[in-house]
Amino acid sequence: MKFSELLQQLELEVEIQEQHSLLEHPSCDPELLGLSAIEEAASGTLSYIEGGRFASQIQTTAASAVILPVDAKLQNQASQRQIAWISSPTPKLLFAKAVRQFYQPFQPAPGVHPTAIIHPTATLGSDVSIGAYCVIQANVTLGERVCLHPQVVIYPDVSIGERTLLHSGAVIHERTQIGADCVIHSGAVIGAEGFGFVPAAESWVKLEQSGRAVLEDRVEVGCNATVDRPAVGETRIGAGSKLDNLVHVGHNCQISPNCILAAQVGMAGGAKAGGWVILGGQTGVANQTEIGERVQAGAKAGLHGKIAPGSIMMGNPASPYRTFLKASALYNRLPELHQSLRQMQQQMAELQQQIQALEAAAQPETNHEI
Amino acid sequence: MKFSELLQQLELEVEIQEQHSLLEHPSCDPELLGLSAIEEAASGTLSYIEGGRFASQIQTTAASAVILPVDAKLQNQASQRQIAWISSPTPKLLFAKAVRQFYQPFQPAPGVHPTAIIHPTATLGSDVSIGAYCVIQANVTLGERVCLHPQVVIYPDVSIGERTLLHSGAVIHERTQIGADCVIHSGAVIGAEGFGFVPAAESWVKLEQSGRAVLEDRVEVGCNATVDRPAVGETRIGAGSKLDNLVHVGHNCQISPNCILAAQVGMAGGAKAGGWVILGGQTGVANQTEIGERVQAGAKAGLHGKIAPGSIMMGNPASPYRTFLKASALYNRLPELHQSLRQMQQQMAELQQQIQALEAAAQPETNHEI
Amino acid sequence: MKFSELLQQLELEVEIQEQHSLLEHPSCDPELLGLSAIEEAASGTLSYIEGGRFASQIQTTAASAVILPVDAKLQNQASQRQIAWISSPTPKLLFAKAVRQFYQPFQPAPGVHPTAIIHPTATLGSDVSIGAYCVIQANVTLGERVCLHPQVVIYPDVSIGERTLLHSGAVIHERTQIGADCVIHSGAVIGAEGFGFVPAAESWVKLEQSGRAVLEDRVEVGCNATVDRPAVGETRIGAGSKLDNLVHVGHNCQISPNCILAAQVGMAGGAKAGGWVILGGQTGVANQTEIGERVQAGAKAGLHGKIAPGSIMMGNPASPYRTFLKASALYNRLPELHQSLRQMQQQMAELQQQIQALEAAAQPETNHEI
């Protein structure tokens, strides 16, 4: 497709502030065959530059068209190199929209594979796609156009909203409710028993987990991630929240809409996250933690207690990032600080001796005067 | 069921010290329809209060009956609000027993699904339940009432004890021995090859893993957790130990009975844990670590070497928790300490000058005296 | 097999410097029945001693034959105890070769199970083994002697090289390329969508992941590990690299040959690792990190930025290990340092007073002299 055709197909009203005049450079309307990362782009591809880090790539990239930030210097450099371009305050967002013009993810056609085992009490919406060897148990409800790749297992009493997609190896446990337009990736387990054991004299007594997991609309759960159900009540993940691979969400957690949990994050039982919270990879959240809205945690942070809205937290136990960055910079200098301290102790001892000498020198004189 | 009926069905001899007199408040024998968390309880439900944190909820909860700790104030508050109650030194434990009167987890009926593929050399105990698309390979032995949900795969030469439950997506590798009354959750992989590679000049040489994994009775393994087998010998998890989701137990680990490994804990090859060890979420245990009995590690701890029995450890590398708490409190004050140190260095320099001045002042006098 | 027969079957030219003379001790050619770890060896087994840690076991082990390092003391001790032995500069490597003489891992015979569902456009090499309930989708190519254990799912357009082994529960997503002689363990997910979401005003917009994951020859991916594909371009894992259980490799990561990623390591999007990098368990690598060749990171390290080749890194944020070890040793002494600092502040104040007193004492005299 021509670059100009692509631009017509994107909804550009909102986010584009400036636009390269194609008429002035008719040679700059390349035929685009695909997409590429800016640093490994081939001729005939569309790429994008988001921030400063990759800006210098405009000098060398072989991409034929680039989505740029609103930056006159970059625009000039692109024009000089005969690269077609368009500017946006959010280049990556525009690129995300452009990707869909070139690439549609693989999705099986509607239909139920003959090897799928579907309980007679299950209710299937129109145009569902159910792959080979799926197992759908009693009282399950699937909305319109729900798609199960092969080998998905759904336990009884589960409901799944319209257009939600489940990848091979996903397992959805009893009573789970999943909204519309969700994606459950391969190996993810939703609604399994929370980790509830009560100590007794001889061993641990199991607390049965009678609650359920609820995923609102547009939630994504990464590969091999786990979202547990609680003993009583709900574990809930708000609309539009996205969980990366190998994330663990414990029983009774309450995650508000539009949160991002990067890979290998763990949230212990009863932790709460406000809207738009972003947790970096391998972050741990202690049980009953209350994370305010729009909190961000750096990778490997350890959160506990109450975290004020908008905080940016780092470290374990986590601190506001400025505190953490100052402290961690000094951490490596601890040996030096220690050394300074010891030197000062020695100097101090010397000073004390000198002063005693001075005092002694002053004292006899005083004595002599008596 | 009436509250009074519930109390009759629980075995209350041991753990209950005090009991609300139902005869005095006949209106306080509510019909109970279900269970709830204290802070979100609806009328007609039973809840519990364990510790101080949730104690204030007794003033507002809509629960009709509550299991309380032995606490006269809470008992009075409950009575005044016409909430039926019973006291126990271990309210959560009693609640765990009460839950079973209201809720039975979903379990398929005995029987072998026609799509299950079972090797002719496998031995099945009476009343086993084998779900759709399970694959059971050569020389596997399943005890009485073992239950496999759909899509469980068992490699050859595995034995599984009575009443053990395997959820969909679990994979049990060759030679694994699993005891009675265990639960293997969805996606857990038991007895796969340990991570054994030996460096050679050109690449890594695989050390074949000829050993086996052994799970004793009443072990639980969480969703997508992994327990590896070793090159030689055994990886062993003691009776009554519970592993949460996404836990990794490396080859040759020896975990004693009644240990708790919270989510995303990792134990490297050959690590040992004594009885009743509790490891917080995301804790890492270095290879060959020896963890004494009843050690507790806080979330994200990094354990190595020998840990004395009964220690409570935090941080990475882990320290006794008192040390860690004091040190981590000062960590954030490092910039302040650094500032103090620099101020003192300046003050010290000033003092040195003052003393030199005093000495110089004293010296001339001495000289003058000569 | 006799010890002497075993030695004949191993290729000993290269790595063995010294060899026990079997002729001198004909009684020292035991019949070997199996393998064992040195500390739990039974009579009739072969074991090995690698380093100093287990050296004392030579005094007590019941092993009948031992592979020793080149160490005259150990050799003498073994001879005195009538233990057959051979010395190698790399005992564990020789043991790895010996293991294969006693133990062959379970592998299904070639053949396609009648329940396997194979798309007509798939191409199967000779002697492939495809287990029960496997699903192989359109345009998949399997090389000669590829082995799929039961319940493996392969999405369309995947190619898998000769002799590669996939364990039950593995899921390979669209367009993935896997080389020869790889092992994909149970529950591993290769080539699923990278975690790509772009913030917009109302929620997160999905960046479709049109790229692919590429595993070169001899790569191993552990149980429940995940390797994502990128939006554009490739995620690549170099030949001979080994990933342990529950490892996460994000979109666009580039891992060079012969790297080792221990359990629960996470590499965020676009991170690069040079050849022979070794990352300890639970290490996290920030996005776009560039790790030089032969870098080693201790367990739980947090890597970011550029890491110079050959560095040994520890801590989070990671530092060269000498720096980290010194700093972490002082970390626990922070309360003591703080205490010293406060003492010195007090001493300093006292000195200041003393000096003022001395100055005052000197001053009046001077004044008196005026």
UniProtKB/TrEMBL annotation, chains A, B, C:
Catalyzed reaction equations: a UDP-3-O-[(3R)-3-hydroxyacyl]-alpha-D-glucosamine + a (3R)-hydroxyacyl-[ACP] = a UDP-2-N,3-O-bis[(3R)-3-hydroxyacyl]-alpha-D-glucosamine + holo-[ACP] + H(+)
Residue positions of the active site: 251 (proton acceptor)
Matches recorded under InterPro entries: GMPPB_C (IPR056729), LpxD (IPR007691), Trimer_LpxA-like_sf (IPR011004), UDP_GlcNAc_AcTrfase_non-rep (IPR020573)
Entries under Gene3D superfamilies matching the protein: Hexapeptide repeat proteins (2.160.10.10), MurE/MurF, N-terminal domain (3.40.1390.10)
Domain spans labelled Mannose-1-phosphate guanyltransferase C-terminal: 114-193
Entry's Gene Ontology cellular component terms: carboxysome; membrane
EC id: 2.3.1.191
Coiled coil: 334-361
Pathway: Bacterial outer membrane biogenesis; LPS lipid A biosynthesis
One function term, GO molecular function aspect: structural constituent of carboxysome shell
UniProt domain UDP-3-O-[3-hydroxymyristoyl] glucosamine N-acyltransferase non-repeat region: residue ranges: 29-100
Keywords: Acyltransferase, Coiled coil, Lipid A biosynthesis, Lipid biosynthesis, Lipid metabolism, Repeat, Transferase
Top-level lineage group: Bacteria
GO terms (BP aspect): lipid A biosynthetic process
PANTHER family hit by this protein: UDP-3-O-ACYLGLUCOSAMINE N-ACYLTRANSFERASE, UDP-3-O-ACYLGLUCOSAMINE N-ACYLTRANSFERASE 1, MITOCHONDRIAL-RELATED
Subunit structure: Homotrimer.
Family: Belongs to the transferase hexapeptide repeat family. LpxD subfamily.
Described purpose of this protein according to its UniProt entry: Catalyzes the N-acylation of UDP-3-O-acylglucosamine using 3-hydroxyacyl-ACP as the acyl donor. Is involved in the biosynthesis of lipid A, a phosphorylated glycolipid that anchors the lipopolysaccharide to the outer membrane of the cell.
Entry protein name: UDP-3-O-acylglucosamine N-acyltransferase
Organism: Pegethrix bostrychoides GSE-TBD4-15B
Gene: lpxD
